[in-house]
Amino acid sequence: MRDAAPQTIYLKDYTPFGFDVTSVALTFDLHPTATRVTSRIAFAPKPGAAPEMFLHGENLTLISAHIDGVAVTPDVTPEGLTCPVPDTPFIWETEVEIDPQGNTALEGLYMSGGMYCTQCEAEGFRKITYYPDRPDVMSTFNVTVNGPHPVLLSNGNPVTATDGHAEWHDPWPKPAYLFALVAGDLVAHPGEFTTQSGRKVALNLYVRPGDEGKCAFGMQALKDSMTWDEQVYGREYDLDIFNIVAVDDFNMGAMENKGLNIFNSSAVLASPETSTDSNFERIEAIIAHEYFHNWTGNRITCRDWFQLCLKEGLTVYRDSQFTSDMRSTPVKRISDVIDLRGRQFPEDQGPLSHPVRPESFQEINNFYTATVYDKGAEVIGMLRRLVGKQAYDAALTLYFDRHDGQACTIEDWLQVFEDATGRDLSQFKRWYSQAGTPTVTVTDSWTSGVYTLTFTQDLPPSATTPTPQPQVIPIVTGLLSPSGDELLPSQVLELTDRTQSFTFEGLPERPIPSVLRGFSAPVVLKHDLAEDHTAFLLAHDTDPFNRWEAGRDLARASLRSMIREGAAPDAKYLDGLRAVLADETLDPAYRALMLGLPSQSDLARALHDDGVTPDPDAIWTASETMRDAQADHFADLLPGLYTAHQVQGSYAPDADQAGQRSLANATLSLLARREGPDRAQAQYNSADNMTQQLAALAVLLRQNAGDAALHAFENQWAHDRLVMDKWFGLQVMQATPETVVKIAENLTQHDDFNWKNPNRFRAVMGALATHHAGFHHASGAGYRLLADWLIKLDPVNPQTTARMCAVFQTWTRYDTDRQTRVAAQLDRILALPDLSRDTTEMLTRIRGS
Ligand code: BES
Ligand code: ZN
User: What is the tens place of the pLDDT at every residue in 755-767?
Assistant: First the structure.
């Protein structure tokens, strides 16, 4: 039931908990609808502690409570309990009953496909037992699990395991959000790792019977992550065992519970036949991410949830470094920037805008955002660019030494950098406290042999940042000669004032600037440089990111004039791209990225920035026309490219092969525009891996020639949930704006549309919402269908519902007709009497006044 008035929590109100928890012992007697949880917790009052104690607890049936063996009767509310307590250390014992099977929200202890599992971050432990469920309360845990299941797991090291009974001890003090328990009929894919200092660690990947063949890649990724964290950050693993469990029903991708990571099966299970190259890459990154949390998140955790970026921003930064080392640095950087622009920029520029460290929230689950994660990671990248690699390494070593075992803040994090470098970071700190994407405008001049670059930064005021102040912006810049030689290699220019100039002397001629190389800061760059500047960079820039960016800029500019003035596709863009495409010295994966266009929602944002109301149909048409123009302009190159990049030999999910396939498949979709579907059908028929099969199916669907393949695919894969998610999603993604809503609606009537499963729900509804022209169809049918399903899902799973609501965040960009239609849907949902706190907060913020 919705609270009468949702409470807002403020960072400024932080107060420490009045008691230390010195040990926790939990016993679980598992039962699908009536699990008993017995707790025995040692509390020690801190000086000045109150005579009563509040413990969080939700959806619990309290059976009994004792203090030092004496029965007590606490005051119980829907949020927790309050009880008078002694002023000296005491033992708190309770027995509660919970209903895992009835727990469809997938938070706390729940059941998925017959197995028990938990998800406690951020505030799910309070659905398991009464506890101070806050990250700054850390304790060691002993856990006993009783139940008729072959596998009974919890955090830490195993103590005893007999039939139906297991005990676990976690020696590292941890907050309750890192607690985990798993029980079920699972099989282990085992492995072993020897740490730098020679300690042997048993590794296991637990899966449901039948999934054994999808474990090898994840296990290797885990070992690679363990090695990398030792070599790059000097961090060793600290328990005798590390377990990963795959579950089918999971709200997020994965969770870093101490010694017992729990993964959405889509984020860990992989085989060549069932997973695409992008799946493999994502799995490797998520395994790394959750593993890296062992130090950045678990050993050093967050004082409160406002500090979430302390662990998430840093860990995303670490996993991106890992991927960059394991695969291609430019390709990873470009992909990250595409994601940042696709997810974080719209958030930062709309009604959900908030600083990397927010100062208030209603429902913390709504703050696991692109801003906290991806901008949080960008902020760390900037810090490293500003202080340099060596100082960064020194600061990190100090961070681990100084704060191991603590629950920390962004102040602690920045202090370590100040101490390690002697640098004043007070201005840098604004990256954590100011919301919004800065715009940086650059102009240049050449007078009497002196070259000057002048930068101006602007941060638009917003609700959380009414009076923005200038930030420190590292602008990595190189200068090129007109023949494309590097006159000045990349260097970091530090923009600290609102407007600032940098001069360069002793240059032989007027240079061509290449600024914001490697996307050295998360800003929108505007320039007023010579007309052919961008085309020159596309042809010559020695920085691979900026070369790609030049192609993007030309594509965006051309699409803009196609949309606004009915112009033809820009020949300069197509010629420049042609040269890149034909350049066999360039990585195929990089060339495939070059062929990509800015997404249609990215174009809508660019138009909106120009003060133009975006028309989704016009954007769709321009993008299609541009694709056709690419197909025509490169017609003579494409067949050769397609053939030359067919991988010979057996499938491997490595960067090299994946790059070949991505170029070949990008080529295939262009070829089909001229030749029709035959080549795609041939690829579909002969495909022996999911990357080739799915890419061919996508082209067939787009060619309106996919019916046979679609049926064959369904017959072939009906038994595999993860593959069927692709089948559901692809039909929506490849539909036209006119057909997509109907297709999505029909899919929701399919027998296998298990909408309570977050992966399946997102496969259809997430795909609908990202089909720009289809979702924003003028009829409003897209808005209506999504709203219908959000209304259905909210009482079952508020967290997944609320996250999906973010797709409405850009609604005020569009014309008044569309705005009226969106508003009607938002109001319809908001009018529901029992709407969850999660969804209420999201929609209230999005709807505005
Ligand atoms: N700690 C999070 C998982 C989480 C998120 C729990 C939100 C509760 C609420 C985990 O480390 C994480 O960030 N997972 C990401 C994937 C990662 C590669 C960015 C996810 O689940 O999407
Ligand atoms: Zn994380």
Answer: 999 999 999 999 9
